[in-house]
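Practice problem 4.
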């Protein structure tokens, strides 16, 4: 069974850059790309609004992941989609475990390391908790301006 590369995807420019890098790497050794869209759905506060919110968030995740899957399908690289209703870091770590991944690829907007440490960026946290190597891919320059 070929190894897997988990890629965190949220539809942003830096996530697209991470996806493209994961596909490039998977093409080198036949790895499978696992597109993970992790999203936290807050605990129920009571009332009908929470159900609508949950459905809307899930729909956004599905649509975004479908666009990523379409992009990967054009390359011929083997892939699958994993929607994880968890906080992003936890969702990615659990996906690494579920798919026996050899690495995880995520994008970054290029925030200052101190801001990431204080605000808790996903790449910063992953560097500390991931059981596999983490590749952090910057957003294209035009997207960060």
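Answer key:
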């Amino acid at each position: 069974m070929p190894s897997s590369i988990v890629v965190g995807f949220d539809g942003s420019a830096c996530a697209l850059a991470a996806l493209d890098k994961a596909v490039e790497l998977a093409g080198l050794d036949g790895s499978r790309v696992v597109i993970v869209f992790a999203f936290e759905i807050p605990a129920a506060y009571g009332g009908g609004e929470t159900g609508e919110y949950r459905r809307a968030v899930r729909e956004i995740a599905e649509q975004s992941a479908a666009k990523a899957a379409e992009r990967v399908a054009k390359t011929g690289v083997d892939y699958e989609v994993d929607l994880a209703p968890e906080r992003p870091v936890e969702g990615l770590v659990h996906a690494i475990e579920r798919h026996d991944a050899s690495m995880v690829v995520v994008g970054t907007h290029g925030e200052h390391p101190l801001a990431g440490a204080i605000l808790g960026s996903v790449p910063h946290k992953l560097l500390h908790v991931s059981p596999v190597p983490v590749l952090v891919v910057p957003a294209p320059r035009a997207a960060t301006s």
